[in-house]
Design a protein that fits this description.
The protein has nine helices and two strands. By secondary structure, it is mainly α. It folds into two domains: about 1-95, no CATH class; about 110-179, no CATH class. It has a two-stranded parallel sheet. The longest helix is centred in the C-terminal third of the chain and has 20 residues, at about 150-170.
Length: about 180
Amino acid sequence: MAVCDGLKGLLEAINGTWPQTVVQTCIVHLLRHTFRYVPSQHWPKLAEALKPVYTAPAEAAALERWCEVADTWGSRYPAIVRLWENAWSEFVPFLAFDIEIRKVICSTNAIESVNARIRRAVRARGPFPNEQAALKCVYLALMSLDPTGSGQARWGRRWKHALGAFDLAFDGRLTRHHH
């Protein structure tokens, strides 16, 4: 499973390398892009209208809710209709998953935050004399994200249910190699 933020060509690159991958669009990015086309005074009403789409129990229900959103908002903001229709095939895999999986795959924000911290550390250091020095810089940046180690316990609590749901959804592929 890969969660992407809509970067052009990423879907094709992932599926070309790993054909079994389920590619899911980042729900947070999709919503963010949606609100770009709408003046801020309409954000609360549009957010209220979109929530039943991305929290729907299945694709059929999401499509019904989406048609209501498109009917209500489409004439005023046709760009949001085009955005969602173009993203639909990468949006719907999300709906087939258990709620525990949905919680952890709805956004790429966590990994983007880690990437930003690594970039900042690398930029502050400048050129590296060798690969080992660069890897050490990245390692230290990652370790500084959780200096006390308490995040590991939080991670375990947050992911425990999701890992079980992933194992069921992907028919044991997650744990098959660990026995």
